[in-house]
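Aim 2 progress update. The chain analyzed this quarter is reproduced below.
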Amino acid sequence: MQFTAAQIAALIGAKVEGDANVSISDIAKIEEGRQGALSFVANPKYEPYLYETKASIVIVNDALQLEKPVTATLLRVPDAYAAFAVLLEKYNEFLTAGTAKKGIEQPSFISESARLGADVYVGAFAYIGNKVTLGDRVKVYPGAYIGDGVTIGDDTVIHAGVKIYHQCRLGRQVIIHAGTVIGADGFGFAPQADGTYKKVPQLGNVEIEDQVEIGANTTIDRATMGSTLIRRGVKLDNLIQVAHNVEIGEHTVIAAQTGISGSTRIGRQCMIGGQVGIVGHIQIADNTRINAQSGLSKSITQPGTAVNGTPAFDYKSCLKSQAIFRNLPDWVQRIQQLEDRLDAGLVKEG
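Predicted structure tokens:
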């Protein structure tokens, strides 16, 4: 199916710059653009490709100023990335139209006490435990485990191999990707006088609010008491560890391989880079930015703070410190040369 620039512009509210009748039937990255394809440029690093791409239509930001002519028709929008995301969503709906999974595949196990909503899909080899509640249009893909007493809201998708332990609660329109574990025991062990450790029972659960997406092979531990809380709109990448009694605020995003220790509270709309380590029992204010591979060892109380490094501190100060550190070998060499000249009597002291 083909779409013209004018049709796409109407869908995303764009201004057409170029031939409004040019059509596309495919989507491609800007660096791999080809005739008949649509692409986008949101990151300034990719702007040079705009002048050499063969893509027929390119979505760009309103603020982009051209440095030289382009052959593609441009669709100007306030946010090119967000507009492209809308188009991908529509394109995916087109590709999957009429293929939505429904019904119960066999072999699978569904407890007689479980309650299933309308148009639910349960894949082969899935396990649905006692007193589980699945909302309307929930999809549980093959090999998933849903423990006793779990509640899952409407339009939530549980991908293959996900494990959700007992009594956990998931909201509406949640997406859990393959291999993720929700509600395993928190890491609680009490040291004993003889040097051994006694396991502390983890009696709480995990509660995940609406429109959360959790990447593959992420683990979210159940609370010792109460709940580990993932608030509305949170987006977690693959391979993240969330410990017991952590709370992650609304619309916070966290990149892969981050580890969050127990009882830490993260505010709303925070952005946390990959491989960040966060100690337990601290608070992180709303709109905090933590750069990749940082180690956070104390609370951040000022909203809108940006930090970097290990231990993490003010982002700009950290970059200045890193620049000084990189220059240390040169400075040491210059100091050594000055000392040598002093020793040789070539420089007078004072």
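The chain is about 15% helix and 30% strand. The first strand starts at residue 3 and ends at 4. These observations will guide the mutagenesis experiments scheduled for the next reporting period.
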